[in-house]
Amino acid sequence: MTSLVWQPATSAPSLMAPSTATAVAALDFADEVEAVSIDPAISDTAALVEATGMDLADSANCVIVAGKRDGVERVAALLVLATTRADINNVVRRHLDVRKISFMPMDDAVTRTQMEYGGITPIGLPDDWPLLVDSAVLQRASIVIGSGIRAGKLRMPGARAAELANVTVIDGMARVVDA
After folding, report:
1. Domain that holds residue 62
2. H or E element that contains 27
């Protein structure tokens, strides 16, 4: 098992994408955000959990979705626990008021977030993107999320996700994944 050595995120900007490091430093609760260096090969949630023994329920994934309404693109980031799947075809689609929605293609998500695939995080996203957070995320004592790069992870109190930029908390946005 790989053991993780956490440190204050504000003292480890190299473990984050530049936009993430800037956004973390500006948080009212920046002192509650920790960073850890990881092998980029274990950046994906399942690999990280297997390598470290971390509880899968403490991991939260950030995914980017896009849809259109009247020819206007509507983009959002979603934050859900790794034990769940976002209900993008119903809950998220209705919330964004689009007819059709899908996950943003990887190359577009990487280019537009300026973050690495496998490290996309809800902290430091483009200013005009809404962040939709499943209410279950707020119930976790702490959540482990991306840092914007594959070589790092961030940890923060789950309840603090409600205080991130452009957040809307949605009850039932994600459904538990059957084992």
Report:
1. 7-176
2. none
Tens digit of each residue's pLDDT, the chain (179 residues):
678 999 999 999 999 999 999 999 999 999 999 999 999 999 999 999 999 999 999 999 999 999 999 999 999 999 999 999 999 999 999 999 999 999 999 999 999 999 999 999 999 999 999 999 999 999 999 999 999 999 999 999 999 999 999 999 999 999 998 75
Q: Distance between CA 101 and CA 13 in Å, rounded?
A: 34
H/E element, 24:
helix 18-26
Q: What SS3 state is found at 159?
A: helix
Query: What's the CA gap between 24 and 31, in Å, rounded?
Result: 9
Provide the number of structural domains found in the chain: 1
12 domain-assigned: yes
Nearest to 121 by CA among 49, 16, 27: 16
CA distances from 23 to 36, 103, 132, 147, 165 (A): 17, 24, 17, 11, 9
pTM, whole model, 2 decimals?
A: 0.95
In a domain, 2, yes or no: no
- Do 121 and 60 form a contact (C-beta atoms < 8 A)? no
Count the alpha carbons within 13 Å of 28 in the hemisphere toward its beta carbon: 6
